[in-house]
Design goal:
- It is a single chain.
- The protein has 313 residues and is of the alpha+beta class.
- It has one domain (2-311): Lipovitellin, beta-sheet shell regions, chain A (Lipovitellin-phosvitin complex, beta-sheet shell regions, Roll).
- Helix content is 20%, strand content 47%.
- Strands 1, 2, 3, 4, 5, 6, 7, 8, 9, 10, 11 and 12 form a twelve-stranded antiparallel beta sheet that branches.
- The longest helix is centred in the middle third of the chain and has 28 residues, at 167-194.
- It is globular.
- The N and C termini lie far apart (47 Å).
- 37% of the residues are buried.
């Protein structure tokens, strides 16, 4: 139970929402001017490719034993842009590389989606199925996700490749797929990339707030305040501060609950013409307790996420 608890917590929080960053001293670019419409407007047929690097340290105490995990994920994701007749964007999302390294005390595990075909590791096989899949993401110009297609096909592909020994093993695998792979690694990535736009045009130094709930093993409510720091001819620089808190469980019989709070701070850079994300960095600090299968455990999490993107064609 301890191992499963630890893996679920690790994967869930390694996928925490992030905001982007740029090393440019953007104060020198500050300029006054009219309001800007910050919306998605990528050219149909264009392709954007991103690398996302996540380093997360998780410290959890179970049965008076402190366990520390250092987790590192390295992923490449591409988006092929199209537009439908309703004026919404349809982005074909594909993982081109997925590598995870999990270090727990002196034990280290490396997982690579490219090794899935001959791996005996359930999670590694799932990562391979994820890499082989394509997800069609339907987005409104304000970044609101209307639909994501491809989950059913991806799940079927994954579970055909795994031979389960029992019904309980199948149930655990399905839970891992639904709450970590689908909810965090796909849906959360889409929200991280696109659900950051204001509802109206913005001026330099103007703020707006977006509230988002990350669904998973534990639901996390994130309230992010964005601030326009600088605007150039090609880019818009935005800072943000996010307050994170776990949602209270209304089902008193629930075995898995959390009481977690924390903050994320960061900056991000958008391409002004298209609204597409260009680079990112975030530092997050969370702490609290989790309760899984009746066992309560203090928890501390620190993470740093960096992202670099560019138009490939």
């Amino acid at each position: 139970m301890k191992v499963r608890m630890f893996i679920l917590i690790t994967v869930v929080f390694a996928a925490c929402r992030f905001v982007p960053s740029d090393n440019t001293k953007s104060e020198s670019y500050l300029k006054e001017g009219p309001a800007f419409n910050v919306l998605l407007n990528p050219e149909p047929g264009s392709v954007y490719r991103y690398t996302v690097n996540n380093k997360t340290d998780v410290q959890i105490t179970v049965d008076d034993q402190e366990v520390v995990s250092k987790n590192h994920s390295d992923m490449s994701i591409s988006y092929n842009v199209a537009k439908d007749t309703a004026g919404d964007f349809v982005l074909s999302m594909k993982y081109e590389k997925i590598k995870l390294r999990i270090q727990k005390d002196k034990e280290e595990t490396e997982l690579d989606a490219d090794n899935a075909s001959f791996s005996m590791n359930m999670l590694e096989k799932m990562l391979g199925g994820l890499k082989e899949s394509t997800f069609d993401v339907q987005l409104k110009p304000n970044g609101m996700v209307k639909n994501i297609q491809g989950f059913s096909e991806a799940g079927d592909r994954v579970f055909r490749q795994i031979q389960f020994k029992s019904i309980e093993e199948t149930r655990i695998a399905r839970e891992l797929w639904d709450k970590t792979i689908e909810a965090n690694m796909v849906r959360q990535n889409v929200d991280q990339f696109f659900r950051i736009f204001p509802d109206s045009s913005v001026h330099l130094r103007e703020k707006w707030t977006i509230t988002h709930t990350q669904q998973g093993e534990f639901n996390l409510k994130t309230t992010t305040t964005y601030f326009v720091k600088a605007i150039t001819e090609e880019k818009i620089f935005i800072e943000s501060v996010a307050v994170i808190a776990s949602e209270k469980e209304t089902d008193m019989s629930a075995q898995n609950t959390a009481d977690i709070k924390g903050e994320q701070t960061g900056e991000y850079v958008l391409e002004l013409k298209t609204g597409m994300l260009l680079s990112a960095k975030l530092s997050a600090d969370l702490k609290g307790t989790v309760k899984m299968q009746g066992v309560e455990a203090p928890l501390k999490i620190k993470s740093v996420v960096t992202m670099d993107g560019a138009k490939a064609k």
